[in-house]
Amino acid sequence: MQVVICERDGRWAAALRRHWPETLPPIREVRGLALCSQEDLRRPENVFAVEATLSNAGDLVIWLRSLGFGCRSARILVLSTVALRSWEWLWREAGAVHVVYRRRDMAEVVRMLQRQEQEFPTPPTSPSAELMPLLPWPEDASPT
User: Fold this and answer.
1) Rounded-to-integer distance, Cα 77 and Cα 49, Å
2) What is the chain's percent helix, strand, coil content, to nearest 5?
3) Alpha carbons 143 and 43: distance in angstroms, whole number
4) DSSP H/E element including 16
5) CB-based contacts of 104: which residues, under 8 Å, 6+ apart?
6) Cα–Cα–Cα angle for 19, 20, 21, rounded to 5 degrees
7) Does the predicted model carry a pTM greater than 0.90?
8) What confidence tens digit (pLDDT) does each residue in 55-106 have?
């Protein structure tokens, strides 16, 4: 699982890191929707948290719709302010799974990401780590 925060200034990422457990992968930050990799967006285990502002609220709807319906894609969270609450139904209709309006609600986002990590566990990093649980004698086997 990869967690990517797309925002202008890093404030949402800082708020999220205050609650970030070591069990989750590191947060990656980007500064624009154009920098979000299309390959990463098509992977269902990835999560993107995208900041919505007055200047990009409509573009965000179009971007969410461009990800396509009917295919498994990354989960998208929208980070916004209460002033843009009237846009929520459009973002959700376009594909956002959750909308957060306050930085103090990041603990809720972390719980959501922990559930996501359970659904899509991080794959082993080496062939031996992948094979170890499959051996008939795991307690006697030693990793190489």
Assistant:
1) 4
2) 45, 15, 40
3) 30
4) helix 11-17
5) 15
6) 115
7) no
8) 999 999 998 888 875 556 788 999 999 999 999 999 999 989 999 999 999 9
